[in-house]
Amino acid sequence: MIDPRFALKAALGALDVARTMVLRKDDRPFILNHLVTVRCNLACPHCYVSGPEQVEFNKVRFPRKSEMNTEEMCAFYRQLVAAGFKIAIVLGGEPLLRDDLGRLLEVLRDHLYITVFSNGYLLEERVELVQHATNLFVSLDAPDEQHDVLRARPGTFRRALAGIEAVRSRHPKVKVAVNMTVTTANVQRVPEMIAFAKRLGVPVAFQPPTYDGQFTLDDRPHQVSAQNVPGAADVAEAFRAIRAAADGGERIIGSRAFFDLVIENRPAYPCFYPSYVLGPVMPNGDVVGCISGGVIGNVRTTPVPALVKTVAWQANAAAGPSCAKGCRDWGIHDLSAARSRRFRLDDAKRYAAAFVG
Ligand SMILES: C[S@@+](CC[C@H](N)C(=O)[O-])C[C@H]1O[C@@H](n2cnc3c(N)ncnc32)[C@H](O)[C@@H]1O
Ligand code: SF4
Fold it and tell me: The whole model's pTM is what?
């Protein structure tokens, strides 16, 4: 016998999907989320893309020879410019492993706001590759050499800091921020990280690990990396400190609505990521449906305007507002919250202040 509460929830969900499809049929994506490679020079235990248990999967599923080459990437990016995209989020794997990154970003430079995520290991010696980025997030999971342990490679902390300095001196227009992934090992160190980022003079973002959602591709393994998820009480305490610091004027990226979501451990929120974001686009051009977890198209074979009209795209996009995966990524949440009153003028101001400094 069907639980009546479940039946009601399912019916409301279906209604919501129907309403969304009718009301939002003209919504088109304007943000690219692109994993330019899944190769990485690190293998961080918590990582859902290129961590130790992903390495073999990646070699089979996304071998280097399957990656789009420079010409294909540039052609894809030119399509995005023509289609009026506004934001490109470029990550990996480690994007600085692509020698052609600078050329790729040059295509977008005058048209899109470009955010690059890097582990910083190669940043000092390859700083030219990020010269066209608007904004660069360098991962920093601890305010000292514990970072090397969390990133499983000695020297990573020192090199990330040297990379940040190199960007500041060589390409001062690129706005640098740091991103801390909050795991069991560093959840107690959030206040220290806030102080460290302040001394460094950069904004800081925090995110707890997430294992459902945008990068859940088919059978991508994540059993081992998921062991790094801290307990709810520890996460809540850490995010209370983050919220208090943000309220006190520290340069912390993320809305109050996002901090509250994490503190209260609310399971889900209406998500607009799948309608506004093209991606994750994998290195071979596959586009993953974050809700379906399967490949819903390929940018090599289908032009972007046609891809977003396909049934697979539309179904994934329409399911966003009732998605219950509850991704814990400030970017995804705040993109969605920005459509609602939960994202307040204060939040918009806070974002602006964090970036402008
Ligand atoms: C996937 S990495 C790619 C870019 C680059 N290699 C780096 O480490 O910054 C981008 C960010 O995602 C974070 N990340 C990795 N696995 C995660 C997970 N399971 N949940 C949340 N964030 C994760 C990383 O710590 C990093 O800050
Ligand atoms: S450096 Fe980035 S992509 Fe590589 S394993 Fe670590 S978090 Fe994942």
Answer: 0.91
Distances (CA, A) of 11 to 17, 91, 268, 311: 10, 38, 17, 21
Hey, where are the domains in the chain? 4-356
Q: In a mutational test of the pocket of ligand 2, which residue from 44, 48, 137, 220 has the highest number of ligand atoms less than 8 Å from its CB?
A: 44
Q: What is the mean pLDDT of each run of 10 residues along the chain (357 residues)?
A: 48 46 61 96 93 92 96 98 92 97 97 95 98 96 98 98 98 96 96 98 92 65 79 95 95 92 90 89 94 91 95 91 85 80 75 69
- Give the CA distances from residue 353 to residues 249, 295, 307, in Å, rounded to whole numbers and listed in that order: 9, 38, 36
- Is there a contact between 62 and 285 (Cβ–Cβ < 8 Å)? no
To test the ligand 1 pocket, which listed residue (33, 47, 62, 118) has its Cβ within 8 A of the most ligand atoms? 47
Contact 93 CB / ligand 2 (< 6 Å): yes
- 4-356 to CATH, choices 3.40.50.2300, 3.40.50.10860, 3.20.20.70, 3.90.1150.10: 3.20.20.70
Residue 207: CB within 6 Å of ligand 1?
A: yes
Q: Which of 204, 309, 318, 308 is nearest to 251 (CA)?
A: 204
Does the CB atom of residue 156 touch ligand 2 within 6 A?
Answer: no
